[in-house]
Amino acid sequence: MIGKKREREDPEVGGAGMADIAFLLLIFFLLVTTIDVDTGIGLQLPPAPEEDQEPPPIKKRNMMKILVNAQGQVLMGTEETQPTPVTQVKRNLKEFITNRGQDPNLSDNPDKAIVSIQTQRDTPYNVYINMLDEVMGAYAELRNQAAQSNYGVPYDRLEEGSERHEKVKDMYPKKISIAEPNQ
């Protein structure tokens, strides 16, 4: 017996604690992981008017009408709407907003410029979103140019709520009206 070698069993890792460890890791990753939630289109709505309050008078030249029809066409204009490629919306809006009374068919000044957006029920969603991106992009570019020329920094670098941020925001206020879709 002294010279005999004992047969050893292969060492094994106990499997009883594995389920506990896997469960704890699962809970850990659920708690630590953040999930991005799409919040939709962020627009700030104006306060609701009082019931007996009449809407303020608006000159036709100060309102840019944008209609996105069921065929996916963007119709744009102050008096009469004309077919406009989505890629042209930003340029037309910037021209409309920054007119400062020079062209009698465009807005008097950026403070009076209103963008009215209307769709039809069967409007393709992607065309509507692309058009809305162009509208928001026009305001973003105008504000960025104003911040660059006045303060030497892009608009998004200005501290939210600071005096400079508010001045640039007041130079080009977003006055966007989104009407209910018709048929």
TrEMBL record:
Family that this chain belongs to: Belongs to the ExbD/TolR family.
One GO BP annotation of this record: protein transport
Protein keywords: Cell membrane, Membrane, Protein transport, Transmembrane, Transmembrane helix, Transport
Segments traversing the membrane: 12-32
Domain of life: Bacteria
Subcellular location: Cell membrane
Topology of this chain in the membrane: Single-pass membrane protein; Single-pass type II membrane protein
Positions of the UniProt region annotated as Disordered: 158-183
GO molecular function, one term: transmembrane transporter activity
Database matches in InterPro entries: ExbD
A cellular component annotation (GO) from this entry: plasma membrane
Protein name: Biopolymer transporter ExbD
Pfam families in the record: ExbD
Bias (Basic and acidic residues) ranges: 158-173
